[in-house]
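Page 42, continued from yesterday. The earlier attempt failed because a stray header line got pasted into the input along with the sequence. Redoing it now with the clean sequence only.
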Amino acid sequence: MPFPKSFSQSGVRCDISPRAQELWNPAIKAAVENTESTITVYGIIGEDWYGEGVTLKRIDAALRSIGNEKDVTVYINSPGGDMFEGIAIYNRLREHKGKVTTKVLGLAASAASVIYMAGEDDARFVASSAFLMIHNCWVFAIGNRHALRNIADDMEEFDAAMVDLYVEGCGQSEKVIATMMDEETFIRGKKAVELGFAADTLSADEIGETTENTNANSLRKVDAAMAKAGVPRSERRQLLQDLKSSTPSAAGGITLNADVSDTQNAIAPDLTALINASKIILSK
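This time it went through. Structure tokens are written below.
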């Protein structure tokens, strides 16, 4: 799917649902990973504020290393991210000639749920304690009323394409899927099986949790708080980079906007204490 012209002209950026970012536990990993035939989707889809994240380039390199004829297992724990990057990764996995198995260990939200759907019908699994999340495309946009109307029109088509993808994968009706996306629906493991999104649930033995990268996890919590406050992803990235380098020059330029779906009419919180706490964490 091409990047809509209205998006590139109006500075539109896909972003993570604040609710998904808040609920995501980045410490959840596969208990055992066979590095010769597995790919991990742990983190933001697209580049994150570390300049890392799960990208098409990384997935393509992993598939080439594994070999086009070999079966591959994709472990997922992600709050989502750039939907266009997610679709590109989905298409690349679908091109792979070996069997693709996808397993959700913690969360596969938004763009990550699209990647999950690249698994074959009998090879998609969700842990009983894990969740899929599907919703309409979440973006930040800047522009006049004409540009914003064009963006909304493009997003409607984009969301319709997502409906088609989910319908093809699970067999539910377009009306059912569209309603679930409108409501930003979290689907637990057993429900995913009932609805046709998953072939079965995962054994708890396949799921582990790491205590590594505690600093990164703490920064992700800061990121989640700012996302919920309505801070655009680009500004969050700059602030977090400044925090890492102890040069918080971007802090004064952030405009908070709490008018998001799950915090209607809320007042944006004061992030000063949170920012100071993250500086302490990074200085250790």
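Notes: The two ends are 44 Å apart (CA to CA).
Reminder to self: strip header lines before submitting.
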